[in-house]
Amino acid sequence: MASENAIIREIYIGKDAHENFENELERALEAGCKLIVIEPSKLGDETARWIAVGNCLHKTSVLTGLASVLCNYIWPDRSYVYCPLAATGLLCALTYTISWQFDPCCKYQLEHDPETLAKLPLHTLTSSSPVVLVRRDDSRRKILHWTLTLTAFSYCGWRIYITYF
């Protein structure tokens, strides 16, 4: 069973402190903690950026797939509009799947909600701006971006087949 919370404390012991912080975070991610608080600012920033890149790939895949499907219906004779959108969606979905699927960090999102943050015991931390990660189920997210991407790519292939063959 997953542990409820994990706090990566900013305590510098020895010269390998940053590596120890990373190992502690890795253990918390692999344990499936529902909430992870990261005090070390460098590690928190790196983790937040990594999650932001994954979110950007996911959103780009979803939006370009949706735009491709819509453009396919609106302008069926303009494959130069919807095919690049579908290709971009496919590229982003593949990159997300290859790079993030097996990373335990993809199961987490940054918590920004002030009400939720107010309920946490953040006053006991030494850092003034810790990064708070919350575990979320990402299966619907993967299904959404792959469904839209494959639909868009299928429509493109079908339209090109009808037009040229």
What does this entry look like structurally?
The chain is of the alpha+beta class and 165 residues long. Helix content is 62%, strand content 10%. It has five helices and four strands, in the order βαβααβαβα. The protein has helices spanning 17-31, 41-74, 79-100, 114-118, 139-164, and strands spanning 5-8, 35-38, 108-110, 131-135. The chain has a four-stranded mixed β-sheet with strand order 1-2-4-3, with helices on one face. Helix 2 (41-74) packs antiparallel against helix 3 (79-100) and helix 2 runs parallel beside helix 5 (139-164). The longest helix is centred in the middle third of the chain and has 34 residues, at 41-74. The chain is elongated, with a radius of gyration of 21 Å. The model has no long low-confidence stretch (mean pLDDT 89).
Short descriptors:
165 residues; alpha+beta; 62% helix; 10% strand; elongated
Question: Topology, please?
Answer:
Layout: E1 5-8, H1 17-31, E2 35-38, H2 41-74, H3 79-100, E3 108-110, H4 114-118, E4 131-135, H5 139-164
Parallel strand pairs: 1-2
Antiparallel strand pairs: 2-4, 3-4
Helix pairs in contact: 2-3, 2-5, 3-5
Low confidence ranges = none
Strand tally, please? 4
Strands across the major sheet, in which order? 1-2-4-3
Number of helices: 5
Q: Helix share of residues?
A: 55-70%
Q: What general form does the structure show? A: elongated
Strand count, sense and barrel status of the largest sheet are: 4 strands, mixed
User: What is the chains' assembly state?
Assistant: single chain
